[in-house]
Amino acid sequence: MSDPLAAPTIEKPRNQWRDVWDQFTTHKGALVGMTVLGVLLAFVLLGPFLWHEETLTTTEKIMLKNKPPSARFPMGTDQLGRDFLKRMMQGGQVSIAVGLVAMMISIFLGTTVGVLAGFFRRLDGPLMRLTDLFLSLPLLPLLLVMVMLFRDALAGVLGPEFGTFMLIVTAIGITSWMQSARVVRGEVLALKEREFVLAARSIGTPPRRVILRHVLPNVISPVMVAATLNIAEAIITESALSFLGLGFPPDFPTWGRLLYDGVSYMQQYPERVMLPGLAISLTVLSVNYIGDGLRDALDPRIRGR
Amino acid sequence: MNMRTALLGAAAVSAFASAAWAERGADGQVNVLYWQAPSILNPYLSSGTKDVEASSLILEGMGGFNEKGEVIARLAESVPTVENGGVSADLTQITWKLKAGLLWSDGTPVTSADAAFTWEYCKHPEGGCAQGARFEGIKSIDTPDDLTVVITFEGPKPNPYQAFVGGTSPIIQKAQFANCLGAAASTCTEQNFNPIGTGPFKVTEFKTNDTVSLEANPNYRDPAKPAFATMTLKGGGDAEAAARAVMETGEFDYAWNTQINPDMQTQMAAAGKGVFVNGFGTLVERIEMNMTDPSPDLAEGERSTIKHPHPILSDIKVRQALSMAIDRQVLVDVGYGTAGRPTCNLVPAPEMFASDNTGCIAQDMAGAGALLDEAGWTDSDGDGIRDKDGKKLSLLYQTSTNPVRQDFQALIKGWWNELGVEVELKNIDASVYFGGDAGSPDTFQKFYADVEMYANNFDGTDPEPYLAQYLCDKIPGPDNQWQGENINRFCDPAYDALVKEMSQTADIAKRGELAKKMNDMLTKDSFVVVPLVDRGRLSATSHTLGGVVLNTWDTELWNAQDWFRVK
Amino acid sequence: MLTFILRRILTAIPTLLLISLVIFFLVDLAPGSPASEIPLTVPAEVRAKILESMGVNDPVYVRYGLWLKQFVWVEPLNLFDHFFGTTFAEGQQRIISYQTRSPVFDMIVQRIPQTMTVIGTAYLIGIMIALPIGIYSAYRQYSWFDQAGTFFAMVGFSVPTFFTGVLLIVIFSVKLGWFPSIYDTTLKVEDWESFLKQARQMALPVTVLALFNAASISRYMRSSVLDNLGQDYVRTARAKGMSERTVLLGHVLRNSLIPVVTVIALGIPSIFGGAIITEQVFKVNGLGAALIGAIHANDLPMVQTLTFIFATLIVTFNLIADILYGILDPRIRYV
After folding, report:
1. Between the N and C ends of chain B, which has fewer C-beta atoms within 10 Å?
2. C265 vs A221, B11, C312, C321, CA distance in Å?
3. Does some domain include residue A230?
């Protein structure tokens, strides 16, 4: 972002995004959040390259089942003698990817529908009735139908793994946008009547510009809240889907699934439920703080202070 | 106290409980937990285990099965046999005699007309009777007097103990159900939720899929029983929570089917509030090999049909190698603990029908590898996966969603991988997998996979209908909406001939021989069915509840009248 | 306003019809059949007969038409009969569940009390905790209180109820023995003792759910108050010398409620829908358990009826939310 041509003597008009970045870096929570998320990403992405699991046969593994954490197995082994550290790394890749992508899909849909419905009165009725429809659809049969109709088709086009991934994130995304849509619409309805929007409209600013410059920045905070909550929800929903056999194949660990499996062993091997639970919570917490920082950074009133 | 407990226990299981020390209702309240809640108390309208077992507290048949699988008398004077003349020598007729003086819980007498009516009720074509199979082959039911029921079969019936024996075919009261025949069956909510019966308890309140509240039947035939005045049968939750409520918190006295992993079994047993009781029946967890080609490249309607034999699994050597690579004892230790044991047989019990085959118990990886080499599957390109004629030895392995099954999948995949077989796993929600919906690609009947795993058993003690599932004409396919029971698409005229022979054989020893032969044909001779684990029933009972005898041949609540409070 | 409400109610009818149609076909299209509940030991012929008697094999539009007639005509008549002792509905087929072979509405009526008491209480408590926490967190942004609130809200939301529920049972039922782990639906509150018993058995499920609800509502409340605290009118109010209390509770709160009202209104129908996992963990056997059980058993009449009632509530509460917007912010007008 730095500009090598900028001479120190002449103060160039500051770039708006530069301001945003500066403000963002002064937000302590946001920095901590970035660091934690970075560490988690490094753990799941680089971890598998640094940590080499011993190659053991199935029978050898079974001898080593339910081992507590040790130098050989830093997070212990599970009920089949699999290295839990390895599973946490593999699980994190899927969970973080699913959480982030599904959240983006759902936030994009929710914000778009919410803004359009709140801003254009003609669209309000149909879009909100559509929201009602989606809110009342029973989730499980909907997912079953989606999987039945699209799994093989998607797997054919995108390959089995990426196909499943796309199916899952789309399924979660299109079943979780309604709350943010309703929240955003409510805010937009109020914003639309505020003086600055009226002013912008009265000088003939086209609706697209009004939405992008005046409305969207002002709905960013509920959207950020929805975004963080959506990540947590997506990670958990993914585990429920896999659990029902609608998601990834059973030998594909994810954090949500590890957590679910761990509940049975809670009294004997508490680390097996604590570790995935902690990983999910940390991801959500860090995204939340980044969101806080972003919101402050994008708010011109706060930025100025 | 020990002496008293021992005495009580001994007395409770014997049929001659004396009334001197016992009194009906003296022990107050007993709490039973079924994590699958009963939906209805009429076993003729639902064959779900939960419904049949809950109803068995209220409704009874002429006879039942004891924990050894022997037929015992309930409403009948005695069990009719060929020896005592109750069963005709040509096996076409059985005569049941009701005990004299039996009363329904509403105080009216039980008569043979009630039994005859029960048959009318179940055979009605529009009623959708769930226990139709129990009344199959009955030509007529006659009632020469109030206490005698004569059942005449269409042909010789080597196993006549089907109708009115066990919790699945009890006698219902004619007066109560007279208006519920046929299509009217489902309008009779009051009758279906509160049947009048002869069992030890009667319903006071039924909350469907939630709680059954019961009280001692004032007209129960033994004036000293049941020892409990009231019973609550609660439903909901899962097996783990149910086990916990008995074993750790002590809120409940008995929990049904607490199938949990062995680690938890040990931990819960250590809490000291109760014990797990187990018993073995005929339920076998198995891998079924697909004898036909499930390839998605085939046209819809030809996948997994006999038109295309399986490119890999048609070779018996491959099937045998896959079976040899499995260490069944490890599977039991991981998944079932005391509630399972390794088996090589499709019919693990009763003893007279069970083959002595144990050849598969010891794992033999080297032998399995040699077999595959012999069959021409070698790793020619060094990628760790065997291949032959440019085709990889790769299998799709599907089963229903269930934590134990997923652990089994992971282990078996591990062994097969070490053998050089590539395995893709798939799990499917049980309501889809077992749903039989012809429109879904994921049912176990359609079998769009190379191997699949599930458990199955047979009703009662006679394996004949069970073994008859592997007939050539029971192969599922598009022409019968995929409804056949021959899941593997196994077809052998010699086997069909044996099935036919068994259906005409009455001699019990000969039947046992035939059953063993058929069992071996499917398992150790052909490896079409690869049995893994003989799954027992595991239930939890509190230390303060006495008289519990786990029975896998009839309902688990078969002797609830003998239950008592240990003081 | 009145014309707006009337118009919305009128448009709700076709909306609901459409929703019911979509749900019916969706559930019907979903793979699976009630046959999955029948054990494998039952022969195929018997199985086919059972399904036949349930009416599963009728064409889907026939079943939809029948269901619609039963829902809008027979069931209300039954209700009328029930209250006035009349017999208008006699002999008319009601909506019958595949699982229980009894009227779906009987089961729903049976389950409303426990659902309302447990889930409703949890929701109320959740809101009562969440609002003050949200407001105070925003007012003292980045104070230790705010940081702690954020931490617990996020952990509370990202740790699913199947975990917290079992954790509470292990601690409070198994180890300490304070509360029961199983909810007794037959308990009737008649005196002080049974009230205490009821309170004890509600304690754990209500705690789990209240925390979960409070976590998300408090986040929306906090962010909304934060937004408003930076507005010019707050500065004006403060400049006029109003007390902080008046500024916060009189001005900011009212203006901050719009997103919160949306979230709360969206949540109320889900009280009726029940909390599937929590109900299952504590064996509350409310409507949530009924719905998930029906979905697993492919009990189409039950699924359809429950989701349709649910849809009606969603439409109603969204309408109420829209009316509340207008009250909270008079500038929002509907024509």
Report:
1. N
2. 19, 62, 13, 6
3. yes
**Chain C environment of A144 (Cβ under 8 Å):** 30-32
A1 lies in a domain? Answer: no
Residues of A in contact with B296 (CB under 8 A): 152
Instruction: Tell me whether residues A148 and C258 touch, CB distance under 8 A.
Output: no
Note the pTM of the prediction, 2 decimals. Answer: 0.84
A191 part of a folded domain: yes
pLDDT at A5 over 60: no
Whether residue C160 and residue A183 make contact (CB cut-off 8 A), yes or no, is no
* pLDDT on residue B313: 92
> For an interface test with C, which of A225, A280, A287, A294 has the most C Cβ atoms less than 10 Å from its Cβ?
A225
Boundaries of domain holding A149:
27-45+84-297
List domains and CATH numbers for chain C.
39-94 (no CATH), 107-328 (1.10.3720.10)
Residue A213 resides in a domain: yes
Helix, strand and coil in chain C, % to nearest 5: 75, 0, 25
B245 and C181 in contact by Cβ < 8 A? yes
The number of beta carbons lying within 10 Å of the beta carbon of residue C314 is: 26
Interface probe for B, chosen from C102, C107, C162, C303 (most Cβ of B below 10 Å), is C102
**Both structure tokens of B532:** 């893994």
CA gyration radius for chain B? 25
- Closest partner residue to A80 (CB to CB) among B334, B400, B441 is B334
Q: How far is B467 from chain C (nearest CA, A)?
A: 11
- Helix (H) and strand (E) counts for chain C? 15, 0
Query: Distances from the Cα of A151 to the Cαs of A110, A145, A147, A246, B425, in angstroms?
Result: 25, 10, 5, 9, 15
Q: Find chain A residues with C-beta within 8 A of C151's C-beta.
A: 285
Mean pLDDT of C79-88: 78
Name chain A contacts of C291, Cβ cutoff 8 Å: 138
- Residue C321 has phi, psi (to 5 degrees) of -60, -45
pLDDT digits (tens, 9 = 90+) for B392-444: 999 999 998 888 898 899 999 999 999 999 999 888 888 788 877 777 888 88
C111 with B128: Cβ contact below 8 A: no
Q: How many domains does chain A have?
A: 1
Is B296 at the interface with chain C, CB within 8 A?
no
B412-424 per-position pLDDT tens digit? 999 999 999 999 9
DSSP state of A253: -
Q: Which residues of C touch A148 (CB under 8 A)?
A: 29-31
pLDDT tens sequence across B361-396: 989 999 999 999 999 999 888 888 999 888 899 999
Beta-carbon separation of C101 and B207 below 8 A: no
Taking the C-alpha atoms of residue B493 and residue B289, their distance in angstroms, rounded to an integer, is: 19
- B533 phi and psi, to 5 degrees? -135, 135
DSSP element (H, E) containing B269: helix B262-269
Percentage of chain C with pLDDT > 70?
98
Closest to C321 (Cα-Cα) out of B329, A57, A187: A187
Q: Searching chain A, which residue's CA lies closest to the CA of residue B297?
A: A156
Rounded Cα–Cα distance for residues B496 and C246 (Å): 89
Q: If you write DSSP's letter for every residue of B89-140 in order, what string do you get?
A: TTSSEEEEEBPTT-B-TTSPBP-HHHHHHHHHHHH-TTT--TTGGGGTTEEE
Q: Are B33 and B234 in contact (CB under 8 A)?
A: yes
pLDDT at site A181: 92
Buried b (16+ CB within 10 A) or exposed e, C149-163: bbeebbbbbbbbbbb
Q: Check which CATH number belongs to the domain holding A181 and give it.
A: 1.10.3720.10
Contact of B424 with A249, CB cutoff 8 Å: yes
Strands B29-34, B230-235: pairing is parallel
Task: Identify all chain A residues contacting C311, using CB atoms and an 8 Å cutoff.
Answer: 132-133, 135-136
